[in-house]
Amino acid sequence: MTNPKTDDIVGVDVCKAILDIHEWATGRAYAIPNTPTAIAQWLAGRVAPLRLALEPTNTYHRALGAAAHAAGHQVYLLDPYRLAHYRQGVGERVKADAQDAELLARYLAREAGTLRVWTPPGEGQQRFWQLLRRRATLVRARVQLQQSLTDLGELQAELDVLLAQYGRLIRQLDRALLAAAETLGWAAQVRHCQSIPGVGPLTALAMVATYHRGEFRRADAFIAFMGLDVRIRDSGQSRGRRKLTKKGDPELRRLLFNAAMQGRRNAHWEPYYLALRQRGLSSTAAFVALGRKLARLCFALLRTGTDFNPDLRLRACLAT
Q: What is the per-residue burial (b if ≥16 Cβ within 10 Å, else e) of 169-185?
């Protein structure tokens, strides 16, 4: 068996001002400014197509990723959680920018067969996700204020005004999200998802946007992308506790959990929820399972381009 080609692999550790670069084949390490001009000059000096390993860092990796993709290079965005465990697994004792660049290159050289090339989303999709995350930040801030600033007595009126302002801004973001979905041509798909009992407009928007994030071959990949898949740790006669991997955007899991709480009140989902509870699941675990079921249904409807049919008998296994 021949060794896979690795002379085109480059690891890049990204920060706001600097890009630390490590060329795997030669071991050469250097740094360039994280600016469009410096990135363009660096890419112009590369003749052969590269395979670049980047770790997503806020939004600082986007300029390099987009420019490299446009220049015909392959870009891989590596999961920071897996990279941290990989560092421990290979015995790295130093975590610094230059060493991180080398580790990124090493990971890509060893695990390229299990990774997928990254394709930058369009500007419209980037704008949509930016709005969704800003909305999530506002919701968390409002809940935190509401819970921590209780029983203020004479200041309660001012708190109510502040919370009302948060509410107005959140509703404005909801309208902006709907407008963005219309511009992207997602309106029909959003309606398909909303036909499911319990799935409201915001959850439907999030499911459609997630569906367009990548090429998901199966519903399992769609579920895993949102961190709703279960981590299993068994050994011999020992059966470990099942936990969600909780990968991906936590806002998606929050929206699905809230959708499950709403759907549980619907006659279509109540038997399913009660069956989960009779199996011994806690209410939280049952809502998670129901939220996962809603996500699977959204995926199926988006794949087929159809609305939910409540007359179809619920045949799915409760384990899903």
A: ebeebeebbbebbeebe
